Amino acid sequence: MPIKNLNPNDLQQAEDWEGNNVAFLCPLCQKVFIVSDTRMHISPGGEKGYRKCPACGKSIGRVKGGRKSGGTASIEWENLP
Ligand SMILES: [Zn+2]
């Protein structure tokens, strides 16, 4: 699946990142959604900081750690046929 890693020092207009909270733009349906590196957003396997697009379910946002403390954030999405 294609993946985009956010650059904490060069966020795009449709992205935001404060602390361990990231706003992503779903590349497939254009929904904006928040992912936090907390237990609020957890994968079926127990990974913190994981959330599927709440609108289409076809992209996954991930965040680990904070923007100013070496954290990482990425969004991955299904390839369309
Ligand atoms: Zn979506």
Question: Can you offer a commentary on this structure?
Answer:
By secondary structure, the protein is mainly beta. It has one domain (3-77). 0% of the residues lie in helices and 38% in strands. A four-stranded antiparallel beta sheet has the order 1-7-6-5, with no helix packed on it. Strands 2-3-4 form a three-stranded antiparallel beta sheet, with no helix packed on it. A hairpin with a 6-residue loop joins strand 3 (21-25) and strand 4. It is globular. It starts with a strand and ends with a strand. Residues 26, 28-29, 31, 53, 55-56, 58-59 line the site of zinc ion (ZN).
How far is the N terminus from the C terminus? 12 Å
- Please provide the count of β strands: 7
As residue ranges, the low-confidence spans are: none
DSSP helical segment count? 0
Secondary structure category = mainly beta
In one word, what is the shape? globular
Order of helices and strands: EEEEEEE
Mean pLDDT: 96
| Domains, number | 1
Whole-number radius of gyration?
Answer: 12 Å
- Bound ligands: zinc ion
Helix content: under 10%
Main sheet record: 4 strands, antiparallel
